[in-house]
Structure formats: structure tokens, C-alpha cells
Amino acid sequence: MLDEIPTIRPETPLLDRVQCPADLRELDLELLPQLADELRLFLLYSVGQTGGHFGAGLGVVELTIALHYAFETPKDRLVWDVGHQTYPHKILTGRRDQMLSMRQAGGLAAFPNRQESEYDHFGVGHSSTSISAILGMMIAGRMQKLDHHNIAVIGDGAMTAGMAFEALNHAGHLDDNVLVILNDNNMSISNNVGGLSSYFARMWASKPYNFIRTGSKRVLSKIPPALKAVHRAEEYMKGMVSPGTLFEEIGFNYIGLIDGHNVSGLVEILNNIKTLRGPQLLHIVTQKGKGYTESENDPYGMHALSKIDSKADQLQTKVTTAKPSQTYSQVFGNWLCSLAEVDDKVVGITPAMGEGSGMQEFAQKFPEKFHDVAIAEQHAVTFAAGMACNGVKPIVAIYSTFLQRAYDQLIHDVALQNLNVLFAIDRAGLVGEDGPTHAGSFDLTYLRCIPNMIVMAPSDENETHKLLSTGYAHQGPAAVRYPRGKGPGVSVDKNLETLEIGKAAIRREGHSVAILAFGSMVSVALESGNSINASVIDMRFVKPIDEDLIGDMAATHQLIVTIEENSIMGGAGSAINEYLLRSNYQIPILNLGLPDKFLEHGKVPEILTDIALDSTSVTEAIKQKLMDCKIQSEAV
Length: 636
Fold this sequence. Notes:
The chain is of the alpha/beta class. It has 26 helices and 19 strands. The chain folds into 3 domains: about 200 residues, Rossmann fold, CATH 3.40.50; about 150 residues, 3-Layer(aba) Sandwich (Rossmann fold), CATH 3.40.50.970; about 120 residues, Rossmann fold (3-Layer(aba) Sandwich), CATH 3.40.50. The longest helix has 19 residues. It is globular.
């Protein structure tokens, strides 16, 4: 048990011998507990250097070792759900020496990536996809007459999503060889792992039991009533000592509960399961953050870790750092609490993003108004729609990338019925080190095409507070999208003042060039505008856009520039293009935004520079456009 994360590369003599899983399989079984200790130590060290997810990874160290020890990876297909827990997997599959590049530009991705390693059979980032993916691999392997095992590892949190149960149901119907490992790290399904249940788990995975089980079914298949009675008796017996009846009903052979930190026991059971036929579900119990005291005590708060600075750096930071600005999530959380104090109809809903969305204080102060529906984005949106039908005003706090998963519900259940639901969309635009799976690159595009939707993009903390109030007061569906992390440091006027819907704000008056900026790009536009004496407009609203002000800018300027932290294709700039074309304005237009490709992980300022969305690049792009159009400007 460690109380402090090591800042110097620890000694790991056994781990150093493992360059790939084939090396791991050469080790004696009794050495695996020592390997687990060293792997856990190296994981803590490497994440301390780079930052990233580590709580889930600490919990599956023994499972990761056992899987690569018992199965012939990469020939056998292993798919991890979500990917938060795959750092140990990366370390054991030839990437140990690259771990210090994790989440950095050009370095290892924070999640499994098919382009990164042959051991990453499926790219993940969103939860609850592993069972569907492994079934596809299983069927493809069967069609190609390939002989390999198929294993999906899914957490108890990810199992709450409907997609996981859809895949389980299909697996039971296919009745082919697949292993689903349910990693129960929150005790959400079972309260304890006792000696009796562990004994039964070993028995149900044993060769003698399954030989008798299969042989009896073959004999009794000619006597259907007897076969049915035996099957029911087996279910009832298992149901008395395990929670596996649900999985048995779907068509899985349930094996559990077992200790997920007993690496030797895991290897034994996995070796037995390899000989079984049909869908198997192995239910293990682990402790998130295992081996690090602070993470064990606070598995949610220590889900991920920022880079650990040296003590000297920490001291210097304490001496020199001024009062930090608020994050946008904190602005939302404070606004939500203020609103709930004066409005009885407000309800906060989130699909397992309460802490990340800044809802902790709201959940504590107003528990009867707070609903965390687990990893079930589709349910969250329709749940909100049902509330809105009965006069409640729900606010759905969700990340941009995860709202994509509930797009049908957003259209059909909310917008089509024009219901009063406010979407507080966090992590809009680039998210930096988490990479393309978590980036909110498309929300302006996919939201603005939906009838009845109001779409807003605040430029700072105070604008966020006002636009949230505006969206809440609006009769109908509305969305406010804001970026991850801290704002520019604007103080918040905490009253619940609303803004006129569809009205932009002039932030700077200039000549020749009008920069129409959305959300986080307003600060970039102001820097650029100051250098070339351009007019800068904080558009605020993506839908409806301020057509009057756009028309004024087109009539009094020689170039219109749009800039957004969203895909250029179909985004906010496209909305302005459509209006200008529809209104027959003859004026050059320059659209700036995210390019038509998935952007890899790295620090947000670095990514913005790479794609020419920093202020210097924006200024140069405008100057080039002016020259191309032969427009006379003070900047040229």
C-alpha cells in the first residue's frame, strides 16, 4: 500500500523482463503477484509524470496480467470498455517505455487505439461498446474460420447502459463462444465476496461440473420437460448464492463472484473458461484505486490525476499564483444552485457526469432535485422529456461528445414535441489530452439543424451565467455549450438576468474586416481584431443568429470572417454563409474553425496553433484573404 506517488522511476526487475505478453507467459505462476506489485508501482509513477486516468487501472492490474497470461494475445481478441482502465494493458503490451509520453502530442493515446498497437483490437472512449464490438469480431472470425477466443471487459458502471444489454441479449441468441468479464468495482451489484460464493464460482468454471452439465443436457434433450426442470433447478441454486440469474436468463453461463485481485485464482478460472462452450459471463469484484491509499479512500475524486509537480514547484505555485478563475463547470454549478433556491420547478439530470459537470453542491443541497441516471445518455434525455410534459423544468448536464449518443432522443422526444428542456453542454470544442473520443467538435453542427432548438455559445464566465438563465427562461428546448476548463477570468454577476434571444454584442468597432466569433473564439478574435483594427462581434447565439447585425456588418465592411471551435462543415459559420447567400450580399467570406479531420490528443493551445486557430494564425489568414481579394485595409 502506497501513501505517496513515486516521483523517481521505481525499481521493477520483474516487470522489466516483460516486453510483451509472450514474455509474461514465460513467467512462473507464483511470480505473478510480485509482477502485479511492480506493475502497480510503475503505473503510479508514470501517471504521476504525465497525468491521466489511473484509479480504474489500479483496480484491474491482476485481471490484466491474468488475461494476457491465460490467453494468447494478440491472436485472441481482447476488447476493453471505455478505456480508462487500460494503462496496465499498455504497459504489458510493449509500450512501457512510451508511458511518459501519455496524452502528449505525438505520444500514447489515453485510450485504446487500433493504430497504436496490434493489442488494441478496438478503439474506445465512450462506454458500453465492448460487448457489441467483441460479438462482431466473433462472427467475423467464424466467417473466416479463425480459431481465437473473444473477450470483453466491462465495468459495472458501463453495464448500466442499454447498449450493453442489447449486446448481451444478442450474444445469448447467437449462443457462440464469447467471454464477458464484468468488473464490479463499486459493489453496485453485489455486497460481498464470501468464501461460499468464491467456492461456487470455481466450481461453475470447473471442467467436471461443466462436463456433467453439458452431458446431462444432451441426454435430457430428448425429454423436454425434464430438461426444463433441471435447468430451472440449476438457476434457482445459482440464484441463492449469486446475482447471476439475470445473465442466465439471457443465455449466459454465469460464473461469480470471485476476487479480482487474486491473480493466481483468476488465471485458474480463465484457463477453465477457455474450455467451455457458449456465452460465459465472469463476474469479478475489484477495488478501484487498489494499492494507493488516497485513491482507495476516494475512488471518484481520484478517478484521474493531474501531473504531479515537484515539491519545489508546488511551493513556488502557492507563492506566486493569484486567485484562480472559475471553470465553466463551476459557473454552471453555482448558477444551478442559485436557480434552485428561487425556483421549485428546476431539476438537474446527468448521465454519470455530475462531478465533472460541477453538480456536487447542487446534489448535496437539493438531493430531491438531483437525478444521476448512470451511464445512460438516451434515458437521461427522454427522462427529462417526460418531466417536461408534467410541468417540471429539467436541466440536462452532459458532455458534448456524450450528447451525440442521445441524438435520436434529442430530436424525437424533446425537439419534436417542443418541450422545455435545457441542455448544459460541457466539454464543447477541444478537450486536449483526452483526444478525439472526448472532443466536442460537432455540437454546433448537429444542434443547429434541429427545429425548435435555441443554441447558445457563451464567450466567458459571465456570459455563460446569463445565457444559462436565458435558456432556462425560454419556452422550448435550448442548449448552452461551453468549453472544458477555466474561462478568461471575467467576474460573474450572479443575478438571473436573461438576454434577448438572437441578439449578438459588438465587442470592438473597426474597419474593413468584421470578425463574427462564437464562444471561446471571441478572445482570439479580439486579439486579432486589435492587431488589424477589425470589428469583433460576440455572436452569442448560433440559432437564431443575429441577422440584423450580420447584415449591418456586411453592408459596412469589406470582409466577413467567422471563427468557431467547432467543425467548419455545417457549423456556425455555415449559418452565416446561408444567411448572406439567401439575402444576396456580395461580400467575401472567410470561415475559420476545426478542420475536417479527427484531431489527436495534446494541449489545447498547441492544437489550436497546429490548426491555425491561435490569434497570430488568424491574423495571418485574414491578411492573406484581404490580399487574395485585393481589398484595401489598414492591416495591409
